[in-house]
Amino acid sequence: MDSVLVELIRSEVHALPPSENLPSLTELSLDLLINIKPKDVRTFLGNEIPGLALNHTEIAVAGQGTNITNLPIESPPPQFHLLEETDEPEDNKKDEDNRSKNKNKTVFIYHSHSWEAYKPLLKNPAQTSSNNEKANVIAVGETLKNKLEDKGIGVEHSKKNVSQALTSRNWNYYQSYALSRETVQEAMGSNDKLKFFIDIHRDAQPKKVTTAVINQKRYAKLFFVVGKEYKNYEKNRAFAEKLHAEIEKKYPGISRGVFVKGKSEGDGVYNQDLTEHALLIEFGGVDNDMTELSNSAEALADVFSEYYWGESGI
């Protein structure tokens, strides 16, 4: 009887999920009437705990130890004018000069929030943001690039200083994905062989949440973010879930899981509508060091290369 009534409601409320995924009538009534989902404790506590109601990130696949108490945390927007400047400003130009040499490259690594940094790599460990590409996520991107190239995979890496680019346009933090979208589209336009796009970030959770010890070796934990605010997002979700499953087989505990976000939790698209093989990967947190980050880059390159040379059909 419940299923019949729910189907009748669904005929009028088209936003409800497909019939095979429909909740019970009790669950549906609670959700519609008082915005409570019996299977999600956040909806019970959202009005009691400040800020919890704003965080509805979906855990598509939970890694070991992942639950709603240790969901990813976004660092607060930095003050761009206070960021430590890079010591090598010519690197961005080098990226542009190498465009013509990238015709055999199929992986594109970039950073929508290039300033996200790691305390152990900073001169001032009180900071968590920096334009120094030896201390921020650009260092991780370069390490992953080298590890993938060791596996025979051609990689293009954008080291664009996003904070400088935003400032030059009088844009703000919330327009960073609009800027990185241009970066991705330019790369696609200059090299039609690019098939995989990896946006590397880092989390703001502390080290106890973002570090794994596997066979006496320390790793910065990874997690995958999938936007759902575009058509056919399930293909990128399936890709992320596949890599999560494969890396967990070889390095159990390294992945915190796959998280799905809508517009209320962030951008909601993350440039993933441009391709079916787009990844947003968070490498570790603010407290992870370069050894841990490098170990994780090596692990990801190991698993990604197996997928690349096997199932991807490249």
General description of the model:
The structure is a single chain. This protein has 314 residues and is an alpha/beta fold. The chain has two domains: 2-56, no CATH class; 80-309, Aminopeptidase (3-Layer(aba) Sandwich), CATH 3.40.630. Helix content is 34%, strand content 14%. It has helices at 2-10, 25-34, 42-45, 91-97, 137-150, 162-168, 176-190, 207-210, 233-250, 290-309; strands at residues 58-62, 107-110, 155-157, 196-201, 211-214, 217-220, 222-227, 255-261, 278-283. The strands form two sheets. It has a seven-stranded mixed β-sheet, with helices on both faces. A hairpin with a 2-residue loop joins β5 and β6. α5 (137-150) crosses α10 (290-309) and α9 (233-250) packs across α10 (290-309). It is globular.
* CATH topology annotation of the largest domain: Aminopeptidase
Mean pLDDT: 83
Within the largest sheet, what's the order of strands? 1-8-7-9-4-2-3
Number of domains: 2
Largest sheet: 7 strands, mixed
Helix content: 25-40%
Query: What gap, in angstroms, lies between the N and C termini?
Result: 50 Å
The number of helices is 10
Envelope shape: globular
Order of helices and strands: HHHEHEHEHHEHEEEHEEH
Radius of gyration: 20 Å
Instruction: Please state the structural category.
Output: alpha/beta
CATH architecture of the largest domain: 3-Layer(aba) Sandwich
Organism: Siminovitchia fortis
Protein name: Stage II sporulation protein P
Region (Disordered): 69-104
Pfam families: SpoIIP
